[in-house]
Amino acid sequence: MMQFLKQVPSIRFMQRRRQWYWLSAAMIVASIAVILVRGLNLTVDFTGGVVLEVKFAQAIDLEQARAALDAAGFEDYQVRNFGTASELEVRLPPAGTGEAAGIQARVMDAMRTLDAAAELRRTESVGPQVSRQLGEQAALAVLMTLLLVLIYIALRFRWRFGVGSLVASLHDPIVATGAIALLQIPFDLNVVAALLTILGYSVNDTVVIFDRIRERFRSMRKATPAEVIDRAINETLGRTIIVAGCALASVVFLAVLGGETLRGFAVALSIGIVIGTYSSIYVAGAIALDLGASARDFMPPEKRGDVDDLP
User: Fold this and answer.
1) How far apart are CA 160 and CA 150, in angstroms?
2) What pLDDT sits at residue 1?
3) How many other CB atoms are there within 10 angstroms of residue 65's CB atom?
4) CA 267 to CA 108: how far, in whole Å?
5) What is the pLDDT of residue 22?
6) Is 52 exposed, middle or buried (0-12, 13-18, 19+ CB in 10 A)?
7) What pairs with residue 237 in β-bridges?
8) What's the confidence (pLDDT) of residue 34?
9) How far apart are CA 73 and CA 79, in angstroms?
10) Hey, how many other C-beta atoms are within 10 angstroms of the C-beta on 280?
11) Kind of pairing, strands 186-187 and 119-126?
12) Which residue(s) pair with 84 in the sheet?
């Protein structure tokens, strides 16, 4: 196994856990506030409607694009740049059956009044009923993932660690969603997939640390719970840095080279990797410690009464 750190560090993570609690609480409150104030940049996946991506030979002014759409008779629409100044995304309300093709032709006629070389790169049409079903299914997927995480941790570890892992699992998608709202990253099904991936990544990181905590509770019987948890986190720190670094490098390259379709997914996942690594170190174990985690949690029931007499 590759060793990143030449020797195990001795960082006292648990000593300052109250400060990390305040930081986490501030991030959660700020994330919820941003979501409520700015809102999510919901795409056609959840709002329904028609989306067209148009490529021009040169940079196009948004006001000129809006004027062209107004002249073509469109009223309720959104226009924004994506990628470069020569690429536009046009969003329109849901179209009736068989109307999408006609709307597409009208939009392109309007865009070609600005640039005869305007090219339609992508078009997508989703009805309101389909978008509502997608939203409900996405929310259900997130809730079911959280429930399965709780059951898994509760069965593998004791309840104190289950609560710590659950809080960390809730913490990560909330903060990540707040960052997505702040940056106005288009919120589509790819971003929902990124949030579910963040949950899995965070749980995996937390389980690795919890496994080492369980081992150290059995071998460091005279140490305090805080010392045991610090030792476990320090011993897995090299692995955490390597895994997080490799995963982050991969999604950064995906964000840069994967195109506009995958950029939201990659950026959301990048944020989640950073937040998930933070929570697995500073949130999950700290909460378990404050709930009274000790060597007794890993002793057979008949031996828990004399744990203090162990050599």
Assistant:
1) 11
2) 41
3) 22
4) 30
5) 92
6) buried
7) none
8) 94
9) 15
10) 29
11) unpaired
12) 82
Question: Could you give the CA distance from residue 150 to residue 117 in angstroms, rounded to a whole number?
Answer: 55
Q: Which two tokens stand for residue 167?
A: 């809080």
Any residues with CB less than 8 A from the CB of 71 and at least 6 apart, and which?
110, 113
Q: Which amino acid is at 137?
A: Q
pLDDT of residue 31: 93
Three-class DSSP category at 311: coil
Tell me the pTM.
0.72
Alpha-carbon dihedral angle through residues 308, 211, 24, 41, given to the nearest 10 degrees: -160
Q: What is the mean pLDDT of each run of 10 residues along the chain (311 residues)?
A: 62 87 92 91 74 85 86 79 80 68 83 86 69 72 76 73 80 89 84 83 84 84 86 87 88 79 83 88 86 68 47 42
Chain centroid, CA 260 distance in Å = 18
Phi, psi of 42, rounded to the nearest 5 degrees: -65, 135
Torsion of CA 35, 36, 41, 44, to 10 degrees: 120
Would you state the pLDDT for residue 37? 92
Task: Give the closest residue to 216 by CA, choosing from 277, 284, 293.
Answer: 293
Report the distance separating Cα 48 and Cα 296, nearest Å: 54
Closest to 201 (Cα-Cα) out of 286, 137, 279: 279
Query: ∠ at Cα 184 (110, 143), nearest 5°?
Result: 120
Beta carbons of 260 and 82 less than 8 angstroms apart: yes
